[in-house]
Amino acid sequence: MSLILGIESSCDETAAAVVRDGYQVLSSCVASQIAKHAVHGGVVPELAAREHLVALNPVVEGALREAGVTMKEIDAIAVTQGPGLIPALLVGLSFAKGLAMGNGKPLIGVNHFIAHIYGAFLDEAHGVLENPATYPLLALVVSGGHTSLMLIERDGKARQLGCTIDDAAGEALDKGAKLLGLGYPGGPIMQKTAEGGDPHKYEFPRPLTGGAGKPLAPENLYNFSFSGIKTALLYHVKHHAGADGKLPAELLQDTVASYQEAVVDVLTRKTLLAAKNFGAKTIVVAGGVACNSVLRERFEALTPKHVQLRLAARKYCTDNAAMVGGLGWHYHRKQAYSPLNIDSFARLPQ
Ligand code: KG4
Ligand code: ZN
C-alpha cells in the first residue's frame, strides 16, 4: 500500500490530496481563488502566486488531516510541474521541494495535462488502465488553458492529434461571458444562462470543420479554433444592440444557448471523427469544460456502443490534486522520481 500526497498550483486553485495506490482518493482539498480574480475578469498570474503562498500550507495540512494520515506515512510527494502559469507553478513546486527535503520523501514532477486525463480514472476504475481492451484511448482535454486531442496506445505511447490554434474552448466561454457582462468564470455561468434557450436560434461559426466551398486542410482535421466564435458574438451583439449598446435581455438566453452549442458541436464532432478514424476503444473527456452538462449529454448520445465513454467525474474535471497524486503513484511504483532541481514549464513539451 502506498500513499501519495498530490499538490497542484498551476492556475487559480490551490489543491492538495492524499491518494492510495493510484486510485483511492482519501482526501481532495481545493482552495479556489475565483472570487479574488473575478473582479479582474480573469486570472492574474502574480495574484495567483501570492494566493498560493498563503493557501498551500493550510490546504496540505487539511488534506493530511482529512485523510487521517501524518506526513510520516506519506511515501512520495507528487506536484504539478507544468503546463500552467509560471509564477503560480513555482510556488507549488518550491513548496513541494521543501516538504520533500524536510521530510526525506521522494519528489515526483507531474504533467498537469496528463493528470487531467488520469482524473477520469480515479475512485472506481482500478485495473482499467492496465487492461489492453481500453486502447487505443482517445482523450479530449478541454479547459480554460487547453483544447487538445491526445491518442494513447497500449504501450503508453501518446501523441497529440490536434489542439487549438488560438483560444481554448473554456477561454471562448470565459471571454464570451465577459463580453456579455455575465461574470467570471464564464463556463458555468453560460451553461446556466443557456438553460431553456434555443441552441439553433442563431448560427455561430464552427471553425476548422470544413463545409461548403471551404475545404479543410488535412493538418487541421483535428485542430480547433475558437477565437472566431468570440468575434462573431461581438458582431452579433453590435447587430442587435439597443440604444444602450447592449444586447436586449430577451435575446440573451438564445444567444448564449447558440454560442454554447457551437462550442459543444465542434468539440464532439472532431472527437468522434478522430475516434472513428483511429479505432479508439475508449474516449476520455476531461478538464474544466467537461463539467458542462450539454457537452456530457452530447457525448453520451453520440458515442458508438462499442466505444467506452469515460467522462471525468465533475469534481475531478476542474483543477484538483487527486489527479496529480493518482498519476504520481504510477511513477512511484517504478521509483521514477524527480531530482530536486526540476523546473516548472509553461507549455506542453513538443
Ligand atoms: O481545468 P480548469 O479548472 O482549469 C484549467 O486548467 O484551465 O478549467 C477551467 C475552465 C474555465 O474556462 C471554465 O469556464 C470552464 O473550465 N468550466 C466550464 C464549466 N465549468 C467550468 N465550462 C463549461 N461549462 C461548465 N459547467
Ligand atoms: Zn487544468
Automatic annotation (TrEMBL):
Record-linked InterPro entries: ATPase_NBD, Gcp-like_dom, KAE1/TsaD, TsaD
| Primary localisation category | cytoplasm
Enzyme Commission number(s) of this protein: 2.3.1.234
**A GO term, aspect molecular function:** tRNA N(6)-L-threonylcarbamoyladenine synthase activity
Residues annotated to bind Fe cation: H112, H116, D319
Role played: Required for the formation of a threonylcarbamoyl group on adenosine at position 37 (t(6)A37) in tRNAs that read codons beginning with adenine. Is involved in the transfer of the threonylcarbamoyl moiety of threonylcarbamoyl-AMP (TC-AMP) to the N6 group of A37, together with TsaE and TsaB. TsaD likely plays a direct catalytic role in this reaction.
Protein's name according to its UniProt entry:
tRNA N6-adenosine threonylcarbamoyltransferase
Tell me which species this is from: Victivallis vadensis
Q: Which reaction does it catalyse?
A: L-threonylcarbamoyladenylate + adenosine(37) in tRNA = N(6)-L-threonylcarbamoyladenosine(37) in tRNA + AMP + H(+)
State the Pfam families in the record: TsaD
Sequence similarity: Belongs to the KAE1 / TsaD family.
Q: Which note does the record give on the cofactor?
A: Binds 1 Fe(2+) ion per subunit.
Taxonomic lineage per UniProt? Bacteria, Pseudomonadati, Lentisphaerota, Lentisphaeria, Victivallales
Provide this UniProt record's keywords sorted from A to Z.
Acyltransferase, Cytoplasm, Iron, Metal-binding, Transferase, tRNA processing
Q: Please list the residue ranges annotated as the Gcp-like domain.
A: 24-324
Q: Offer a single GO CC term for the protein.
A: cytoplasm
Its subcellular locations are:
Cytoplasm
- The residues the record assigns to binding substrate are V141, V142, S143, G144, G145, D174, G187, N292
What NCBIfam families does the entry give?
A: gcp_kae1, T6A_TsaD_YgjD
Q: Which GO terms describe its biological process?
A: tRNA threonylcarbamoyladenosine modification
What top-level branch of life does the organism fall under? Answer: Bacteria
What HAMAP family does UniProt report for this protein, alphabetically? TsaD (MF_01445)
Co-factor(s): Fe(2+)
